[in-house]
Amino acid sequence: MSPTESRPANDWVSVAEQFAADMVAPHAEEMDRTDRLPAKVRAGLASSGLMGLTTPKQFGGADADTRTIARALEILATASGAVATILSVHLAVATGPIVDHGSQEQRQRFLPNLATGKWLGAFALSEPSVGSDAARLTTRYWPSEDGFRVRGNKMFTTSAESADVIVLFATRDPAQGPHGISAFAITKDTPGLSIGQRLDKLGIRGSETVELVLQDARLPQSALLGPEGGGFPIAMQALAGGRIGIAACALGVARAAFNAMRAAVQQEPADWKRATVARSYSELEAAAALVHHAAELRDSGAPFGNAASAAKLVASQAAVRIAYAGVDVAGPAGVVGGAVAARLLRDARVFPIVEGTTEIQELILGRDLIDHR
Ligand SMILES: Cc1cc2nc3c(=O)[nH]c(=O)nc-3n(C[C@H](O)[C@H](O)[C@H](O)COP(=O)(O)OP(=O)(O)OC[C@H]3O[C@@H](n4cnc5c(N)ncnc54)[C@H](O)[C@@H]3O)c2cc1C
């Protein structure tokens, strides 16, 4: 059986548990210290089959449901928020748009390699001065004799230095706002594409975050993903699904912080610590319910955008609060070099930012709940 072939959902949860315990947890401290993904963890991620969870079976993937994917990401994130984030980006916002909008040629070329993990995917939307308001992209493209040229810089691109495939967004004309934006699926050997800064982050270290430089990069006509001018909805659709993944990653970090806190309190109980554990447990369970609800809605085919935003908002905030409380409970030992409680707090703090900040989730939800009804 190939890694991604015909496993029941529970099997993928077991695969994630085993991979997290055997291959990820032992390297979590090293990844945090070195800010590098060890080659054996990258290879293990591929051979686990988890990188094919969102790919249809006809292209060698597992075609798993969202609940299974969310559970797998949560489990991985209890061992490492960085590895879980790499996988979430690969599955939801890199593979996802190619599954949903790729031509037959693009699907045949990219998906089998993304599913087996031979290739790693990235998603390049944000720019040095454009993040939340993605309709204002400044990276420009224009038609050329053999396809397109692209000029501009992309910022905060997860995995882009190691990625083999990048789903890239650029505008034909910034004056057209969202309607000017097109999506492209490009490979790392694209002429004119290079890596700029590699950012030294507070948390999820080991998940690289880099700048991409496009100096009149030469894209073939076949790189266009979806219709020209149709890139903005492709990005928004990918991010809506991706938010369930990032919420699951935040939930995993929250669970790791909770487990560490409870173990510490069991060793040295006190009433205030019991109360902290009780509060954290309630927040953890509330976040878990929202993540699972959003995944269930998506699997049922119902609109899930609001549930995904709510899950991302609540789970990422819960992760920060629970990890913060974990440091309180650990006391001074929680803040010294290499402390797990400190790493979990630094990891947690990234999730309210990635794939739409807390304020942007509030904006999305507020607009839908008030203005669109
Ligand atoms: C670790 C990490 C990995 C990332 N990976 C990727 C990736 O793979 N691909 C990618 O394209 N991007 C990625 N990003 C970028 C991320 O999506 C952006 O950082 C995020 O969307 C916010 O954009 P910004 O940084 O430009 O902040 P800004 O948009 O400038 O926002 C700054 C602050 O202002 C607030 N704000 C902005 N607009 C409003 C408003 N209208 N109302 C209220 N508050 C507002 C924000 O909530 C935020 O607190 C990553 C970021 C991080 C930190």
Describe the protein.
This protein folds into three domains: 9-120, Butyryl-Coa Dehydrogenase, subunit A, domain 1 (Orthogonal Bundle); 123-230, Beta Barrel (Butyryl-CoA Dehydrogenase, subunit A, domain 2), CATH 2.40.110; 232-371, Butyryl-CoA Dehydrogenase, subunit A, domain 3, CATH 1.20.140. The chain has eleven helices and eight strands. The protein has helices at 9-24, 28-34, 39-48, 66-79, 81-101, 104-116, 231-267, 271-300, 305-330, 340-350, 358-371, and strands spanning 121-124, 140-144, 147-158, 165-171, 181-187, 193-198, 209-220, 224-225. Strand 2 and strand 3 form a beta hairpin. Helix 1 (9-24) runs parallel beside helix 4 and helix 4 (66-79) runs antiparallel to helix 8. It binds flavin-adenine dinucleotide.
Describe the secondary structure blueprint for this structure:
Blueprint: H1 9-24, H2 28-34, H3 39-48, H4 66-79, H5 81-101, H6 104-116, E1 121-124, E2 140-144, E3 147-158, E4 165-171, E5 181-187, E6 193-198, E7 209-220, E8 224-225, H7 231-267, H8 271-300, H9 305-330, H10 340-350, H11 358-371
Parallel strand pairs: 1-4
Antiparallel strand pairs: 2-3, 3-7, 4-5, 5-8, 6-7
Helix pairs in contact: 1-3, 1-4, 4-5, 4-7, 4-8, 5-6, 5-7, 7-8, 7-9, 7-10, 8-9, 9-10, 9-11
Bound molecules: flavin-adenine dinucleotide.
The site of flavin-adenine dinucleotide has 22 residues, from strand 1, strand 3 and helix 11.
